[in-house]
Structures are given as structure tokens and as C-alpha cells.
Inverse folding.
């Protein structure tokens, strides 16, 4: 199982970024892919998730209306479109899949939002 997160960077408040999570090594359609983030000195928190088979989506309250998760089944990739970014969105973003009760994580991509 491999997860490759990318797309982070430095943006100003109000800006946008699109994160990608390219996956391999498992049957993409059978799972849900989640995005988590971890800000300096804080615990990792769930941001959004999507069930690949039926498109069921979850967002944490703080990103509703600003972030959009989507998936490309052919590319086995999940995206997180982040708009109206705020300084409090600054964190390392990780994608995640739970397979056979094991958590698999991508390497993380840093998002920095300047005020």
C-alpha cells in the first residue's frame, strides 16, 4: 500500500491549493480515503474523507464550505481542493487509508498560509 501526497505550498490568506493523494497497492474502490492534518504543537485531526465506491463524503466543521474532496477512480487519486485558506489551516496534510485494520499514511505535504 502506497500513498503519495503532494500539492502543498505557501499561500496568502484567502488563497487556494489543491492537494493530491496518489494511491497504489490496494483495490481503490473498496476503501475510504481520508485527509488529516497536523499543525505545530497540535494533535493530528481529521479534515475530510471520501468513500470511493459511493462518494460518501465527510468534512470537519472548520473546513465546510471551503474545502472539497473528490476522487478520480481511473487515476486512483484523491484530491482536496482548499479555497479561502486561513492561517489556522497551516499544517502538514496527510492522506490515509485503513486496510485490514492497519493505518497507512502518505508522507505528508506542508501547507503554510500567511496572514
Amino acid at each position: 500500500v502506497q500513498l503519495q501526497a503532494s500539492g502543498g505550498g505557501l499561500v496568502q490568506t484567502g488563497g487556494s491549493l489543491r492537494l493530491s493523494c496518489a494511491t497504489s497497492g490496494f483495490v481503490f474502490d473498496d476503501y475510504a480515503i481520508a485527509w488529516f492534518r497536523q499543525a505545530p504543537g497540535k494533535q493530528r485531526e481529521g479534515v475530510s474523507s471520501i468513500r470511493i465506491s459511493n462518494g460518501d463524503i465527510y468534512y470537519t466543521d472548520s473546513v465546510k464550505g471551503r474545502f472539497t474532496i473528490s476522487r478520480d477512480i481511473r487515476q486512483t487519486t484523491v484530491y482536496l481542493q482548499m479555497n479561502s485558506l486561513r492561517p489556522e489551516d497551516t499544517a502538514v496534510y496527510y492522506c490515509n487509508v485503513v486496510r485490514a485494520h492497519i493505518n497507512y499514511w502518505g508522507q505528508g505535504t506542508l501547507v503554510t498560509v500567511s496572514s
Observations:
- The mean pLDDT is 97.
- The longest strand covers residues 91-99.
- The two ends are 37 Å apart (CA to CA).
- The chain is about 0% helix and 55% strand.
